[in-house]
Amino acid sequence: MAQDITSDNNKDGKPTPDATGPAGATAPDATDPTDATASNAPSTEGTTAPDAADSESAAGAKPKMSLKKRLIIAAVILVCAAAIIFAIVMAVAKNFTGQEHAVRSDWSVETGDMLNSDAELSLDIYESSATSEDLRIIQLVPSEVEDEGFTYYDEEVQSRLASGVADVKDMREWTADNPLAILNPFGTGSNGLYLYFETDFETQVTYTVHVEKDGIEDFTATAQNTFLDEDTANSEGDAEYTRAHEFQLIGLVPGETNYVTLTITGSWGNVRQQVTFAVDMPETTSGYSTQLSYEDSDSSQELSNGLYALVRQNGYLGYGFFFDNGGTMRYEMVTEGLGLDRILEYEGDIVVCASSNKLARIDGLGRVVQTYDLGEYELHHDINYEQDNVIVALAERSGATSVEDLVIEIDLETGDVTELIDFTQLMSDYVDGWAHVIGPTDTFFWQAGELDWIHLNSIQWLEGEDSCIVSSRETSTIIKVENVHSDPTVTYLIGDERFWEGTPYEDLSLEQVGSFTPQYGQHAVEFDGAGEEAGTYYLLLYDNNYWALSTRSGYAPDLADSVATGTYDVVGTHVSHVYRYLVDENAGTYELVDAFDVPYSSIVSNASHAPESDNYVVNSGISKVFGEYDSDGNLIREFAYECDLQGYRAFKLDFKGFWFMQ
Fold it and tell me: Is the pTM of this model over 0.85?
């Protein structure tokens, strides 16, 4: 790649493959002599026409269809129509849920003219459509990007892209006035801008993004360097002030002209240089809206700092969207499929779900540092930290009848995947005696044929113990398992204890202290701090306040009027809650110590703490809103978003040490 990228090869952009399919079949000739109606017709020669009276008599003798037969035919038609409608509904539902397992097949991106090509690295260099008069921006695109099976979540592809970036860096000296600018060099985002330049003195870079459009506030951040060169990373990687500057500029608004000001400051706080340039950012890859509507409420508490992350928006799977406090999109992450579920920080990088059977470790430049293939396991709902270099994930075995019932662990150094808990085996006494496969008339009929008897939706590892806490939506129960690596054992159950009465697990239910309605259909159970005494601690959770049971017959609890049984039709008439429990394992009890109402969501949703703040961030997926609340549960600001049916989770993260300086 020795040729200077500023050379003009007068080449066109990437060609569009021919989408024309084969021609259809030709209809048979209407006068085909082999037509049986012509060759087999009986001859009428020599026959006498029937008497008109005889014909009239025969016609009059034709019996009328009885009312009974008419009713039978009508019933058959109705049954057939109902079966067809049900089959269509099932097909649509299966297709909808099947999207979570789909893998992206289209990685094409908008580019300008081709500038150069590197056969050795199989990379093409394009002028970016984001280029403005102030700043030339390029794009690096793998030559095989349109081939079947291509993915950016491939370590070999990422290695070639990193080499391509390094080659361009070596072409010349890059300064703040003339920086190397590459749009999304590693293909994992759509509106991140890689910048590289050097300064004469050790400095720090702060940038402000301004868009001349009402409702879009200025976005300011201090850049966090991520060095591709190992020697530079070792010498300057953790330094606050450096001569080399290599970072991903976050905050450019898709579909807008963004005016960027770089402020370069010395270690004494003096401004050494300011540089301003424009970036004509292309539209989002997903087509998702770049501006959320919002409403402020009565709380006077300030919003916390950070970006809201919307993950697994149905209709937009395979993307993660990051919005600022004004509801403006500042980054669009692009993955193979599924959704992020959770974003884990790891040694200055992040670990996310790249697809339903792959995890990815990504650095601040968007480079995929490592991928983790899960083999026969499919991810669902949650990943979380276990210890140091190990994470745990909720999973199911691909193709199995029993679903959403496994816990696996992934070693981030070796990539080893180990199955830790099979709840169908661990709690087989309940499964064998009480659970059944979902049928076509059950609440979650679109899962007909599956044994979703536990439906795990969150996992929390307890630090210092070989124990985890999981949330089961189907049983409306919070479950603790101890001795996970040696002899997994269920040690307690939190929820409506009537559910477990008469089963081998009824003695494991913790006693409810105080008068309150326990959680139903809960999601996102989180450890929320130790209590005052050993053996006590707090759990934070999203109480969906929704009861449904598809895998057990003959159990119908007497529910409080406040508990909903409708999925979508009771939005506005019922509420969900944020609950905070105090668990006392010594006394075998749990009590509700904090609670506040939030918009209703029968399924999905979560509640979590905002970074470095006492505020809460709460997503109500069925209502398609998320909000930030103060420590007393008073709403500060609520955002509305778009998606099909529901959005899974919303978090707030400050990304310090990743995109932004600590």
Answer: yes
